[in-house]
């Protein structure tokens, strides 16, 4: 920090505007193609692994897809920057809930694909549980290990519910994963 406020140093950009824009468009196209490939293989993976499609698409896919974001939030939490860590986590969830989901519904209507926000009981209950647990955890503005542990347990309970959903009654849960018949 200098006492002279008139000395403002300008940082020079590494790439120009148009090359940055071209990289952004190119990477967006590549990620769109890869996302289409991943979504196209979910049903095949579900059949071969013996796991429900809802577990793969609600639990596994977001973990893999947002790995860099999760790593950043964890690094900020270790550096005691919880406001940034919460901003990353809650900002992403808010962006998906407020922008991406309604946009997908509108685009599907335009394309003639039947898609609505009619969730089943498990999806609605898990969403309500996650919102209530997060609200109670964040309401007093403090954090400690027990609150994080409660949120992790809530996530594992929701994951377990989706793992056992859409299975015939009496089917042993770990049979397809272990290969025992």
TrEMBL record:
- Quick one: a GO cellular component term? plant-type vacuole membrane
- Family membership, please give it: Belongs to the Ca(2+):cation antiporter (CaCA) (TC 2.A.19) family. Cation/proton exchanger (CAX) subfamily.
Q: Which Gene3D superfamilies match?
A: NCX, central ion-binding region
Q: Give membrane topology per the record.
A: Multi-pass membrane protein
Q: Per its UniProt entry, which superkingdom is the organism in?
A: Eukaryota
Species = Citrus sinensis
Molecular function terms from GO? calcium:proton antiporter activity
UniProt keyword annotations, A-Z: Antiport, Calcium, Calcium transport, Ion transport, Membrane, Transmembrane, Transmembrane helix, Transport, Vacuole
Q: What is this protein called?
A: Sodium/calcium exchanger membrane region domain-containing protein
> Which spans are transmembrane here?
20-39, 51-78, 84-110, 117-138, 144-164
Q: Tell me which InterPro entries the record gives.
A: CaH_exchang, NaCa_Exmemb, NCX_ion-bd_dom_sf
């Amino acid at each position: 920090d200098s006492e002279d406020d008139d000395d403002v140093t300008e940082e020079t950009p590494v790439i120009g505007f148009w090359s940055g824009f071209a990289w952004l468009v190119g990477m967006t196209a590549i990620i769109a193609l890869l996302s289409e490939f991943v979504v196209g293989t979910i049903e095949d993976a579900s059949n071969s692994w013996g796991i429900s499609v809802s577990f793969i698409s609600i639990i596994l896919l977001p973990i893999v897809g947002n790995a860099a974001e999760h790593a950043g939030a964890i690094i900020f939490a270790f550096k005691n920057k919880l406001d940034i860590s919460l901003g990353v986590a809650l900002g992403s969830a808010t962006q998906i809930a407020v922008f991406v989901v309604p946009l997908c519904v509108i685009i599907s209507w335009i394309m003639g694909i039947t898609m609505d926000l009619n969730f089943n009981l498990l999806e609605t209950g898990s969403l309500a549980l996650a919102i209530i647990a997060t609200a109670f955890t964040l309401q007093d503005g403090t954090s400690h290990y027990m609150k994080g542990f409660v949120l992790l347990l809530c996530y594992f309970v929701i994951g377990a519910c989706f793992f056992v959903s859409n299975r015939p009654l009496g089917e042993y849960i770990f049979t397809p994963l272990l290969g025992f018949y």
